[in-house]
Write a structure and sequence with these properties.
Radius of gyration: 18 Å
CATH class: Mainly Alpha
Strand content: under 5%
Number of domains: 1
Number of helices: 5
Distance between the termini: 44 Å
Helix content: 55-70%
Structural class: mainly alpha
CATH superfamily: 23S rRNA-intervening sequence
CATH topology: de novo design (two linked rop proteins)
Length: 175
């Protein structure tokens, strides 16, 4: 056994299921990458730019991975889902600060375009991960970003999970 952090998930069929290591989750990896990309860009700015827009941009971007991680570490799937909703909110906050940085000519068009692509991909992964959390006999991330609707669920948020399949809710929906 390695020293890696892991989680054991119980299911009705096998009584125990193998687990996913946090660092192996694609959604977590991409969130970490977005935080690092934001840091690399902001670290080149002057003090005023860093102190106003830069700190907010980096904090929002770093918060995405932090909330995915915190949710992963929680015992109950509803808590995990809750923290991933917060991570999704932080993704949209990152969008706001990124757009401000772009309008104020603090980032290049290439940096802005690259971060938009990363953020849209991360939005899809967060959405798919939220939909998969708590499903019986399922461990880890979804095989596909969008899952087919299943019937018979008593989850009050079910309609929300399936309505966000549209790309309209992505940080940059027209890209």
């Amino acid at each position: 056994m390695t020293n890696d952090f892991f989680r054991i998930v119980f299911c009705s069929e096998t009584k125990i299921r193998c687990c996913m290591i946090l660092e192996e989750l694609k959604v977590y990896q991409l969130a970490m990458k977005l935080g690092d990309s934001s840091w690399a860009i902001v670290s080149k700015w002057n003090y005023f730019e860093q102190d106003t827009v830069g700190k907010q941009l980096v904090r929002a971007a770093d918060s995405i991975a932090a909330n995915i991680s915190e949710g992963y570490g929680r015992f109950h799937f509803k808590e995990n889902r809750y923290f991933n909703f917060i991570a999704r909110g932080s993704l949209f906050e990152t969008k706001t600060w990124l757009e401000k940085a772009n309008k104020r000519n603090l980032i290049t068009h290439e940096e802005f375009s690259a971060l938009k692509v990363e953020m849209n991909e991360l939005g899809k992964l967060i959405n798919g991960y939220i939909k998969k959390i708590g499903k019986e006999n399922v461990v880890g991330e979804p095989e596909a970003v969008y899952l087919p609707k299943t019937s018979g669920s008593i989850d009050p948020f079910e309609s929300f999970y399936y309505n966000i399949d549209s790309t309209d809710w992505l940080p940059f929906p027209n890209d």
